[in-house]
Task: structure prediction
Amino acid sequence: MIIDGKDKELIALLSTNSRESTAKLARTLGMSRTTVTSRIERLEKRGIITGYTVQFSEDYERGRIQAHVMISSDPKSSAHIVRFLKKISAIRELHAVNGVYDMLAIVSAESTHHLDEVLDLIGNTDGIEKTTSSILLSTKFSR
Result:
């Protein structure tokens, strides 16, 4: 999909703070509020913007257990696996990857006990053959 420079600037601003007021976005972009609202609506209708999310503070994230879970699976079960894992709220992201593993799940758990429960749910999912988990100790930077 082709988008112009102003749309790219708007997307960058919304990526930083999706709750920014239309008035402030308009001032920053040198546009009217009506134009900014129209551009946002157009980006949503075209499926470029599909939703808005919350970013958590470092203090909040530091109190949670983050893990990357590499998943090896039966390729025929992939649609089933995605549907099942999507229902687990602790799984923040699920990616298809190449190499030895087929998927990468990003998990955010309240405690090691909660992480253990989530890992059991993942490992016991029909079609998942093997998992390997790595707990994140610290984040050096995030963009």
